[in-house]
Design goal:
Largest sheet: 5 strands, mixed
CATH architecture of the largest domain: Up-down Bundle
Radius of gyration: 19 Å
CATH class of the largest domain: Mainly Alpha
CATH topology of the largest domain: Four Helix Bundle (Hemerythrin (Met), subunit A)
GO molecular function, one term: isomerase activity
Strand content: 5-15%
Order of helices and strands: HHHHHEEHHHEEEEHHEH
Protein name: Maleylpyruvate isomerase family mycothiol-dependent enzyme
Number of domains: 2
Keywords: Isomerase
Organism: Cryptosporangium japonicum
C-alpha cells in the first residue's frame, strides 16, 4: 500500500502538550464549563477525552491490554469509539480540573517514552480515513494520534477565546497527515492530478496523482494539474475534521481548474466518523 512519505512527529508531543498545560493552568471554573466545537462536550469533557486517549494508547500499545475491547471492521468503528469516548467522558465529570491536568502531565511523558520505543516502519493500527482495513505503518498511526491531540487543543482554545499552538512547526505535520486522506477522497474521481496549496504559515503544496493503481499524494506542486486549490491551514484541518462542511470550505478556497475534482478533494475526512 502507498502511504506516502514517512513523517516522525514524536519530538512534537511534549511541545504540543506543554502549550496545552500552560493554557489549562490559566482557566477559571467558567472556562472549564464552556461549550466546545465538539457537540455536547465542554472544555472539561474535551480534556477528559484527551486523558482517555493517553490511557488507551498506553494500555493497549505499551502494555498489550485489550480489556473489554472488541475489534470491529472499520465501517463499524465510529459508533464503537463514540460510545467508549462518551462513557469515559461522563465518568470523568467527577474529576476536578486539577486532577485532569495532573493526569495529562503525569501520563504524557510515559506516552512519549512509548512512542520513542516504537519501530516507525512496523505495522501499526489501521488509519481508516487513509487506507481502511489495512494496518498502517506505525509512523502514520502515531501521526494520527498527534493530529488528534493538536486538533483538540485548537478546539479548547476556540472555546475559551485563546488562539495559539498554531506555529508552522506544530501545524505542518497535521496538514501533512490530513492530506493522506486525499487519495481516498478522490477515489473514483475522473482526473490525473490535484494540487493543494496551503497558505501561511505552511506555504507548501501537495499533489495527488493518479496512476493505474489509483491515487497517491506527495509533497510538491504539479506544473499543470487538473485543478489547483489554495486554502488556509485552518480551512483544511477544519473541513478534514468536519468542524466545517465542504460547502463552507469551498467558499474559503481559491480554485483554478476542474470544479468536480475540487469538490471531491474538499470532501476529504481525516477522522473516524
Amino acid at each position: 500500500m502507498d502511504f506516502g512519505r514517512p513523517i516522525d512527529v514524536r519530538p512534537l508531543f511534549p511541545v504540543e502538550r506543554a502549550e496545552l498545560l500552560a493554557l489549562l493552568g490559566t482557566l477559571d471554573e467558567d472556562a472549564w464549563h464552556a461549550p466546545t466545537p465538539c457537540p455536547g462536550w465542554s472544555v472539561h469533557d474535551l480534556v477528559a477525552h484527551v486523558v482517555h486517549d493517553y490511557l488507551r494508547r498506553l494500555s493497549g500499545g505499551r502494555d498489550g491490554w485489550t480489556g473489554g475491547w472488541i475489534p470491529v471492521p472499520d465501517a463499524e468503528l465510529g459508533p464503537v469509539l463514540n460510545r467508549a469516548n462518551d462513557e469515559f467522558v461522563a465518568a470523568a465529570r467527577g474529576l476536578s480540573p486539577r486532577v485532569l491536568i495532573g493526569l495529562l502531565a503525569g501520563f504524557g511523558p510515559q506516552l512519549d517514552q512509548y512512542w520513542a520505543s516504537c519501530d516507525l516502519e512496523a505495522p501499526g493500527l489501521t488509519v481508516s480515513w487513509a487506507v481502511p482495513d489495512v494496518p498502517a505503518p506505525t509512523w502514520l498511526d502515531i501521526a494520527r494520534e498527534y493530529t488528534e491531540f493538536w486538533v483538540h487543543q485548537q478546539q479548547i482554545r476556540a472555546a475559551v477565546g485563546r488562539p495559539g499552538a498554531d506555529s508552522r512547526r506544530l501545524m505542518h505535520p497535521v496538514v501533512d497527515a490530513f492530506l493522506r486522506a486525499l487519495p481516498r477522497a478522490l477515489d473514483g474521481a475522473a482526473g490525473s492530478s490535484v494540487t493543494v496549496f496551503v497558505t501561511a504559515p505552511i506555504d507548501e503544496a501537495w499533489t495527488a496523482r493518479r496512476n493505474s493503481e489509483g491515487w497517491s499524494v506527495r509533497p510538491g506542486p504539479d506544473a499543470s494539474p487538473d485543478v489547483r486549490l489554495e486554502l488556509a491551514p485552518d480551512t483544511l484541518w477544519q473541513v478534514a475534521t468536519r468542524g466545517i462542511e465542504p460547502a463552507d470550505a469551498r467558499e474559503r478556497t481559491k480554485v483554478d481548474g476542474e470544479e468536480s475534482l475540487a469538490a471531491a478533494a474538499l470532501g476529504l475526512v481525516s477522522i473516524v466518523r
